[in-house]
Amino acid sequence: MSRASSKWSSSLNTTRQLPKLSKGFLSSLKKVAGKGGLLTDPGDCWPYGYDNSRRQALPQAVVFASREEQVGGLVRLCTDAGVPLTARGLGTGTTGATVPDRGGIVLSFERMDRILRIAPEDRLAVVQPGVINASLQRAAESVGFFWPPDPTSAATCTIGGNLAYNSAGPRAVKYGTPRDNTLGLRAVSGAGDILKTGVQTTKGVVGYDLTRLIIGSEGTLALITEATLKLTPLPEAKRTLRATYADIHAAAQAVSAIMAQPVTPCALEFMDSSAIDMVSSYAGLDLPEGAGALLMIEVDGPAACIDEAQAAVGEAARGPGLLELRLAQSAQEVAALWKTRKALSPALRHIAPKKINEDVVVPVSRMGEFIDALERLSRETGIRIVNFGHAGNGNIHVNLLINPDDAEEVARAAECLDAVFSLVLRLDGSLSGEHGVGLEKRDFVHRELDPVALRLMHEIRSRFDPKGILSPGKSLPAPD
Amino acid sequence: MSRASSKWSSSLNTTRQLPKLSKGFLSSLKKVAGKGGLLTDPGDCWPYGYDNSRRQALPQAVVFASREEQVGGLVRLCTDAGVPLTARGLGTGTTGATVPDRGGIVLSFERMDRILRIAPEDRLAVVQPGVINASLQRAAESVGFFWPPDPTSAATCTIGGNLAYNSAGPRAVKYGTPRDNTLGLRAVSGAGDILKTGVQTTKGVVGYDLTRLIIGSEGTLALITEATLKLTPLPEAKRTLRATYADIHAAAQAVSAIMAQPVTPCALEFMDSSAIDMVSSYAGLDLPEGAGALLMIEVDGPAACIDEAQAAVGEAARGPGLLELRLAQSAQEVAALWKTRKALSPALRHIAPKKINEDVVVPVSRMGEFIDALERLSRETGIRIVNFGHAGNGNIHVNLLINPDDAEEVARAAECLDAVFSLVLRLDGSLSGEHGVGLEKRDFVHRELDPVALRLMHEIRSRFDPKGILSPGKSLPAPD
After folding, report:
1. Are strands B395-401 and B384-390 parallel, antiparallel or unpaired?
2. Residue among B176, B305, B433 whose CB faces A205 most closely
3. What is the ipTM score, two decimals?
């Protein structure tokens, strides 16, 4: 089979010569893209070749689609010519999934940014993939609803990207991930065929579930051109608590206690002491002496029982090692708390440009054990590790801070990361909760994936994308 | 390719001669099944060849598996010999999916009925497929949790069956279907390979979502041997309301109003006037004069705000045509109300042995229009139609009551059913909300499924089950 990988075969950097796009191909590309829909100058293309993994590679052309038929035409063109095609929202992903490491075409969905329909009576929204998460939230809010997925990058990330990675964010602990909040899709397969999956209703069991198969597949099966999203009514009231503990173990115990009682928080975030140190400079945190870990706990629901909900999680948060439990008293205080949490990721980036940021998951009951082992690892390897994340899901952002100029440290960090992954799997966890695989984790996930399941995934991929043009080589490791 | 369908090619009745199982095959079968694990006498096998579709066909052997390796061995045996294999829980399905219409082997999961683990701190349960839904609920309840899927047959249906059909029941309106409440699976593919899918955590995006692909695939891709289920904390309090309306349109309007406000009921069931007539004989319903439709509305949540929740849905239920809104005052009254609702299906069965029971879904906002059109259809065709179901999901059990001895009426009913399906699709609905496809709807669902998606489904199926031995010919219509 002539697969895209045969010519565009290995990871390319910008200096290496890419296989040339033929004149015929370029002229067809122009036709498909339409006026103003194509970039070919390397200088113009360059900004479309990065994502938040800090990897970057030069696409040979960038196409801006405005309509589904254009996407179909472009995919067919690339399939016929065996040219790699990488779909892209706004580049906030952290795994390199949208970096065109083998050259070829980048398809930007930024112009397919229309909210097509919001139907409160059916609790759904129909959107194009380039709609920004925050724009959808604003539109839904105006009729009393929201869409639960809420990544830290909500202000700039697209729904298409959220679906590609199954990105969730803090609210997932109560409201689930995109897979739990999407009813149906329209998409273009790697063969260039337009397909429709799922339903417009909250039940439906006709045919296999291609909707959730495509969600989380990082643009390797089909390119989403439209999504029917399930909306949730906005809660009437919300309370934000900050609980400070002497150490991370006390905080982990509190998380277990909170998740074992009936009131499910709508956010349950944590920071370890390194993370606290890191953001202290950003904001006057006003923490009690000896603060070793911090939980942000949010509950929502009907106004009539928000006091009781707050009391229930507050009670569960009280345990040995609690130093302070504080209720945010004003909208300003809530905003300040969240600003702190959301500042963590960029703050880390600032301090350690080469941080390795993992988003592993372990069962909530194993978090204490996990954190213990991370501390041991940090001591043993001398690598500074900063942890924060979505504790209610056991989804921990483990950050290894390294000096990129210290080759020996870089090597130790690689070993340390390896040990982190082994640890996660030993604890029945997963290597990625919401960032996905892309290029960053591709060479690790075979450790987690069952070999039979992995083989089936490859076979499914080859049916959706027979020529292997959609993000070739990404997301799945080579079969065993 | 030597597919099972070549020899065991078409629907068989009990009188037709089935291809004989070879001596060698039977002796291997005995070895795989172990002592007491095999039936071959037709008289013994006969009870394992039916489901609640009232179809029945004779399996040539019945195997009772106790362990996953046995399932693997059996599937490999059937794959090698090209013998059809039909998996079965306890036969409560309504679509014929477990009826061995082409003979071959029936695999009963009734002995794989152990709850392996319940972990409240991680909000999960690990179960074998033969566990009865109600047994799981009891075990989960003892630690303060429940598993949301709750089909009417919960007392006798298995978790494996619930997963095979993605069966949901009334609580889905608030808590979702099995796809929303399952974290991971172990299964045996049609090639006889054991595979593991998903995670033990509430987030995870490594690899494609094979978990939800297998859920709802009716035993045509892989046979589930173990499931990790997501548990939900039991609500503290519950209230059950009965709202009676002058006619079904008033009730449909109330459903829309209830679903457009923030308090999501945990059940929102309805019955039309024919359904009311039908169950009146079962129970003293004590309905107001002129009752033309009935809603059962249940809300649950923290005790502290159950009054407010009840008030909110009650307010939404009040509209033109409301005759009475009554709160069940005691546990007895609640039980009586639910008994009425749950008696409907068997009552209908009793009155009309050949009832055609559909479980179509339409968007909630289209229910009024749908019911109108059904009434018109009933008048035009002279077929009596009884409607009830899960109104909050727009999941309506449309029952056509026919006299099986009246050939002319049977023919008219077929036309009527055809029109019902066209109507559902015109209203953006789905032909099955939770019963699935099996044999009953196989010849209709091509109208709903996108042809490209259907082709991909067939291709996926052929990768999971290369010899086509798992329930051959069922669930998916032939490709276009």
Report:
1. antiparallel
2. B433
3. 0.94
